[in-house]
Amino acid sequence: MPQVVIDTDLLSEIVKGVNPVVVSAHEAYTRTHRVLTFASVSAFEILFGYGHKSATAKIERTEALFASNEEIVPAPEDYRLAAIASSLSRHGKSIGLVDPVIAACAIRRGYGVASGNTKHFDYIRDAGYSFHLENWRNP
Amino acid sequence: MAFDLQLSIPEQSRLDHVLRQIVATEQITPEEAATRLMTEGAKLHDGKKTPAEEMLGAFSSPEDVALMDEVMEIVHARRLADGPRDFGL
């Protein structure tokens, strides 16, 4: 099973651990990978949400969990590649800024992407960017 | 630490039996079954969860799940406020 960058929504599902399909996919992945890989933009989104709820204890626990796994801090080259989003929006497929950054981090490192909602990443692949894509909600 | 490892599993041994059982029930290759067994063995040996395993269900209480759902609502609302109108859902 190739190494993947896990998107924000799937990270939230993993820490909840209630969706049996996601749990099964996670267990399969962790048979060959010690850490989960995610982009710092996903960490930012989740910590932003907890901050909005003033959930200080959760912020501390989440930061500890993230710190022991693999967080990719995007490099300038990742952001340049993430500009693929602009070509998609020109064609009426506006997917925001976060998913292109996640995809760019994966593409530049030869990783795949794991998500529970692969539509946006399908758009990026359809635009000609090749990377492995897994749907952990619907494997 | 990556290296090639060649193992010879004696026929009819306990390990042979378990490997065949995993291959048959999981419909995976003998190599994948052996990898799984070694991974499980490593877990038993060090007795600790990996960082990836620690993530699973870290916030699984009903209160934590409800809070995370609210967090994701905030994330989606934030993305919407930032411009895109298609969540891809």
Brief digest:
The complex is a heterodimer of chains A (139) and B (89). Chain A has 139 residues and is mainly alpha-helical. Chain A is 57% helix and 12% strand.
Structural class of chain B: mainly alpha
The whole-number mean of residue pLDDT values of chain B reads 85
Let me know the largest β-sheet of chain B: none
Rg of chain A, nearest Å: 15 Å
Q: What does the overall shape of chain A look like?
A: globular
Level of helix content of chain A? 55-70%
The count of helical stretches of chain B stands at: 4
How are strands sequenced across the largest beta sheet of chain A?
1-4-5
What does this protein look like?
Chain A is mainly α. Chain A is built from 8 helices and 5 strands; from the N terminus they run βααβααβαααβαβ. Chain A has helices at residues 8-16, 20-29, 40-52, 56-68, 76-82, 84-90, 98-109, 119-126; strands at 4-6, 37-39, 70-72, 112-115, 133-135. In chain A, the strands form 2 sheets. In chain A, strands 1-4-5 form a 3-stranded parallel β-sheet. A two-stranded parallel sheet of chain A has the order 2-3. In chain A, strand 4, helix 8 and strand 5 form a beta-alpha-beta unit. In chain A, helix 1 packs across helix 3 and helix 3 runs antiparallel to helix 4 (56-68). By secondary structure, chain B is mainly α. Helices cover 62% and strands 0% of the residues of chain B. Chain B has 4 helices and no strands. Chain B starts with 13 loop residues before the first helix and ends in an 8-residue tail after the last helix. The model of chain B has no long low-confidence stretch (mean pLDDT 85). The interface between A and B is large, with 44 and 33 residues.
